[in-house]
Amino acid sequence: MSEPLITFDDLAIGYDGRAVLSGISLAIARSSFTAILGANGSGKSTLLKTLLGLQPPVAGRIHFASPPVFGYVPQTVELDSLFPLTGFDVALMGTFGRVGPGRFPPHDERQLVHDCLRATAADGFAQKKFSRLSGGQKQRVLIARALATRPDVLVLDEPTAGVDAAATHALLEFISQIHAERKLTILLVTHDLPLVRKHAQQIIWLHQGQILHGTVAELFTPERMAEIFEMGVG
Amino acid sequence: METLRQILSPDFLLRNSVYTSVLIGFACPLVGVFLVLRRLIFMGVALPQISSTGVAVALSLPLWLGLDLSGHDSQSTHMLAFAGSIVFTLMAILVLAFLERRGRGLPEGRLGTAYVVAAALSILLLSKNRYAELGWLDLLKGEIITVSNFDLTLTAIALALVLVVLGLFHKELMLVSFDRTLAATLRKNVVFWDALTYLLIGFTVSMAVLSVGPLISFGFLLIPPLTAHLFARTMRQFTIFASVIGGVASFLGFWIAYQWDLPVGPTDVVLLGIIYALSFAVKKTTLLFRPKSPV
Q1: Is the ipTM beyond the 0.90 threshold?
Q2: Which of A178, B39, B78, B168 falls 20 to 30 Å from A24 in CA-CA distance?
């Protein structure tokens, strides 16, 4: 395993000082592809928010080898369709972290956004209204936006939710491709076990207040799977 | 056309009223856009009413303190009213926004209660205020008839300030409105930009209420953005269309009101309603006859 980029050190996460999950100690390697699995309410979103700095840990800490830039890809349902924005407008937001208040994105930043849209095969519909795009098209625009942040870590929150099977397959193939090409660290939150088996290297499995961490080969054995699901039954 | 020539004449007696009305018409939709996009339309109803309650409280203060304001000029009255309006609006918007962000309880219920209590309180305060007869009730109703040069200048400066801040920081205000999580991961100070958005809304509402009253302020905050939203493809189009619709409607409303001796504010709002209804019909008709794209 290469050097850790992110280390959770006896971390407890939750709301209003009450821990949902505690005792999280694990490391995420630079340039790795890690899937975060777990049922609804298992703490996936809380873990993600804590990692992104949107809410403080209840206890413990998160250590970064160097302060990373996160390219965050939200679920498309979180974005209000009322906003009259084109795909390009949405992707352009990825550059706002480098463009200070009172300034407009300069030409080179806009060019970068065009490049990112081309890289995600979203340039064909970038001038269309974002709210009118299909689920798969929106995800490609949002990944382009995340790439426009020039990220060290790409964080995808259930990117295949509401996306049909063919588009899901294409999307994950594409994410795997940019992971290989750009050596990005990928954190993917999902429910989809077959996708995880095919694309991820590491797994963080949140289940019944416990955290399992290991490689796909370690966790996806019949014995470990039976153990995990027995935890659920018991 | 003779009426139009009169209104456009530099010697027109009510020219300050025309200018103020048009300024409010252009400015209110600019912040109304954010109320609509953040789905805070009920806040747009409650805020102008709370603002006018602030005016009523401020104007009642001298009475409660035993001071006689009848000899004072309109500037000090206007400043006092503005202070009451801005203090109440900002306090209300910060409390309501904080509760809305916490996402607990019933936001519509809170806003409805704030609206109705504020309206009732205004009536109670003014019923016991002998200074109301000096024209303050007209101020609260939004009779845009007697606007002094001082009032016009104050309105123009305030609205120019709003325009400059919106122009400079539109990118940040739009980002925190559309995707707070992204804004936070880009290390933007979300609380600051949220507060600035609400400050701009509160400031504009306060100015508008003083000039045209709560009902008309709400009309200009809401209807032009809703109309513009039917046709706008981008944020820039949305903002410009909304502002132009508000400005043009306020001028046309003044013209119609002057021509037929009607109250200006209500004429403006009815005109905006007609424009919205016609735009909605045009949009639906266009969609009906648009060729379907091949599957």
Answers
A1: no
A2: A178
